[in-house]
Amino acid sequence: MTATQPLLQPAEIEAKSRFVGELKTALHEVIIGQDELIHGLLIALLSGGHVLLEGVPGLAKSLAVSSLAKAVHGSFNRLQFTPDLLPSDLVGTEIYNVREGVFSVRKGPVFANFVLADEINRAPAKVQSALLEAMQEKHVSIGGASYPLPEPFLVLATQNPLEQEGTYPLPEAQLDRFSQKLIVRYPTRSEELAVLDRMARTENTPVVRAVTTLEQIAAARTAVDCVALDPRLKEYIVSLVFATRDPGAAGLKELVGRIQYGASPRATIWLALASRANAFLEGRGFVTPGDIKRVAPDVLRHRVLPTYEADAEGLSSDKLVARVLETVAAP
Question: Which of the 8 DSSP states describes residue 60?
Fold first, then answer.
């Protein structure tokens, strides 16, 4: 929020967030459960961040992304990442027109509002580099020319945590470009029964309704930038990030030597953006410590890397982040 942007009034928040309830309802008409997944995707949509989705096959990750795109009238492309994928398969290439004697550009599937990179860790380094440019710069290079990507532009990438053969681990630089890493879990027993009733048929599977537009999403993003973030909460965000880099100084002596890499400055930025988006989704024009604590695990889990010793002791990234949140005092 800049000095010239006024604070949002309750009536403005209500008016600009009215579509949120309708959007959640429309998504739940297709997707059973997965409340945290849907909430995380909405935070990404409102804050403009890319998302890494990790979960075993069959948990509606792809369905959630494609349904979100349809619900907001956005364009959607899905690309299955494989070891033989080429950068041109992602961004496009130049095609020579023999009749006219000129080259024309054929744009690739990255030119969409929502790009689903399925099993992203199966693609080689050159493809990862091309995707990295698109994620960071919001444009791609084809034949020496630069082409802007549509707005909004979100990369939603999936990873299968069970199968690692034939995969290329994502470099830390690329992991850091994802605003959140969402863990997609199995449904509960009642949810799985509901999935059975709704989806176990050969015809008439549910189709999501379009309930809002990209223009409304753009207006909501502008409103999110106006959500108030108190200076004490900014200090709290910085304290959380610094505790991952120097746990001893934060009173976390048991974590000294247990964190290989702490969170980067991007984590600070995304904690602020995601907490503002969370406050907006809850109909508030100001951030609370609860907003920061809710989004912190998703923002930090892929940025706080445990050491070999921590892995041996069963200290995962989630457990390290949880200890940081427990120890660093909120205002």
Answer: S
